[in-house]
Design brief:
5 helices; DNA-binding; Arc Repressor Mutant, subunit A; homodimer
Amino acid sequence: MDDVFRAIADPTRRAILDELVDRDGQSLFEICSRLTMKHGICSSRQAISQHLDVLQGAGLVESRREGRFKFHFLNRKPLEQIARRWLRAQPRENNS
Amino acid sequence: MDDVFRAIADPTRRAILDELVDRDGQSLFEICSRLTMKHGICSSRQAISQHLDVLQGAGLVESRREGRFKFHFLNRKPLEQIARRWLRAQPRENNS
DNA sequence: AGAATAGGCAAGTATCCACTTGCCTGTCAA
DNA sequence: TTGACAGGCAAGTGGATACTTGCCTATTCT
């Protein structure tokens, strides 16, 4: 769970998640070019690849290799748990 | 919004939020001792104070000074927006 | 008044992390 | 089969950041 928070702390990784929401199953180069086009992010291929590793390590992204391509898929489950961590219970007022 | 993600990236700050969910309006020393007791976090008072500054900068915590005490209150609104960023739309499959 | 309590400020340190750089492997097309 | 394409590995670097250290202010209690 710690990995998930660390993963979404970086704005480039959040942009990657946004891109996968828009279109699931992209390859590394697709993601790179879309980040440049739509988000103005001009990081190198290697940088994005490392970001994808972090996202995968956090369970937010899964990947499948096909030939020379590697496709990346979004996994929402860890994000759903984040949402519920602090938003369920109402806090007790401190009356002491 | 960037500040919010950076703020919740740190495990100690997440523990502080957990503590404020459990009991809103705690002072700095209350938070320090509770972190030690319940979370095994043995950071110094200054460290926790700096964490509270970060949380406040992100709008996750508000504070009110009364005499020599400063009470800290949780603000859930930024967290609600996080939850809704990636969980609304279903991603389109890549059929190309 | 004097001591203890609650907290603040600022500089220094050490670690972490995003990114680069250079080179390598595997796949497909001409 | 040769070159272009898609991606991987690993070491190095610079900047961010969590934490410490030392000292200071303000408030409350005895």
